[in-house]
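Morning run. Coffee first, then this:
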Amino acid sequence: MGTFKAIVIDKTESGTKAALADFDEANLMDGDVTVAVGYSTVNYKDGLAITGKAPVVRRFPMIAGIDFAGTVETSSHPDWKPGDKVIHNGWGLGETHLGAYAQKARVKGDWLVRLPGAISARDAMAIGTAGYTAMLAVMALEKHGLTPDRGPIAVTGAAGGVGSVAIAILAKLGFSVIAVTGRTAEADYLKGLGASEIIDRKELAGPAKPLAKERWAGAIDAVGSTTLANLLAMTRYGGAVAACGLAGGMDLPGSVAPFILRGVCLYGIDSVMCPIDRRREAWNRLESDLDRSKLASMTREIDLSGVPEAAAAIVDGQVRGRIVVKIG
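And here it is:
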């Protein structure tokens, strides 16, 4: 037993504070697999937890971080042995269970997914929960029966993590993608990922009509609130929207009209408690359906000391694409 570096969130008189600190391995929580963490990433939820902008953290002190990729050190779980390469996403890590921004993590073996052979640990965290969520959203639209010949797919929060990966996946699958963003200066970046059209998020910012002109066959939404209501109102007959975020708010100020007059479906995408079989399917699909060169173009790398600054930036909507955190 010894100490290791970690980003630890503690309570203060004025709220919470996150800082790089030494953490005693003896204080890790129960779990049947201990992992040497190689890489993590910065997701929107990580930003909320570290900045204290939302009550993500449920116990203190808490090691932040919901994602890691690493190597099994010790295991009493039948599926894992020392040396295995693994991925972790969600399951309350960084919320109720000590998290990923640390050189070691102890978790339940049932929470882990084997690192696909063609994906490096670094690329797995360039994908992270944001990219894995994007893949779950694409899978939901496919299950609904949406194919490229049905029409374009709109992606909101397009320059963010979920949006960037969603665009790259959809484009590789042959879909025409409409990128919705408040950062229109990122048009070249978004077109490089595969977007065929860029629209300003202001077009979806006003009060939603019960029904509006049909513009897309489906959508992936990371924003919520009025944006999601407008997306639904503009979805073609028989289309679908996969909702996976709340950057714009948790409310849904819309109408039932898209559902009962156009047969539109709204799919909720949960990445935290998603069943293990669906997780494995999503990661297998990411191995085959995400262009690694596009992933590289949307990714930058920091170390543990840079996490608090990156967390503040992602909450403020100032992060483009994905951030990898090099730990090991």
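The chain has two domains: 3-115+298-326, 129-268. Good start to the day.
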